[in-house]
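Recap for those who missed Tuesday's class. We walked through two folding examples back to back. For each one, the amino acid string is listed first and its predicted structure tokens come directly after. Nothing is annotated here on purpose, so try labeling regions yourself before you check the end of the notes.
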Amino acid sequence: MSQLKQRLTSSQRKVITTVTIDDATVDFRRPTHPERLAVMEASKAAGEVDSAEKPTTAEGGLRMLARVIASVAYDPETQQRIFDPASAEDVTAIYNAPWLEDVQDKAVQAFRPSVGEVRKNS
């Protein structure tokens, strides 16, 4: 494998924003397309969303939001994901966290590019 190819395929995800949760710094990074699809599939498998990706209940919507947060939250020191979006235990921990609603908008921003970003990149 060429050095350039190796560098490009192993590059880190883009940091969209950094947040502070209970005095801890957390990077919110843009997930890859396969990671986004895995979050949606896990939410469908758990019954949180239907086949049209609409929440089945209010709790289902919040649990899907917890999966989104899990998919974008990274430790800035290790550059590793903090939570596993496929883990029911991690999703429940985020769902029950008092800070979920404090970071939800920034997490969604990191998870999905805005229309403006898409237009700028096309």
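Example two. Treat it independently of the first, because the proteins are unrelated.
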Amino acid sequence: MKNMTKPKILGNERGGIAIMLMSLIAMLFCIIVFVVVLDYIMLYKDQNKLKNDLNRAVHAASLSIDEVQLSQGFYRLDTTTPGTRAQDMFYRYLRLNMGLDNTNHALASSVIPLNATVNISELIYVDWESKVLVNMNSTPTSCTLNSTTSQVSCAVTLNGGSATQITRTINQTVIGPSVVAIINTYHDGVGPMANEPLLIPAIQEVYFRKR
């Protein structure tokens, strides 16, 4: 009886292992890309949500009208009556829509991480009648007003001098009483998006329509 020699397939096995490793590396790469892209999508979604919430807050503040001044023919916002002041309305609706407590820390319902802080970098009222800025924030403002052109200019920088430095500016000509706000917080992402700083501006103007 003749001896049957079993074919050698060692070379084929080595090739199969190489293909398997390459497949695993490609799969790992795809997973990493998917996670990063998903995080960018979540960042964009959360930033849009925060921007809309901030827009609503400055809109609410702009509706706090000083009725005494209005009776005298001046359209000014109320910045002195506790509870109904423009700044009080701003904080009320900012906290309500963003899911914050009374110290501006995120609740479980917020899109930012639990207990993360939303800081108010700028909160000013443009008194268009007098052509002056009223700082409604507890910190000094970087904003200026050109009384000739009615242009409001603000600039806020976070993490200056670092790799995560971010700057937001406002340069806008207003045509009526206005509320300007800039807030900052962070996005709790992964990889390069971990603790991504967010700096979001908003402005609300009030103007009259002729009928």
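Answers for example two:
The chain is about 35% helix and 25% strand.
The chain has one domain: 17-205.
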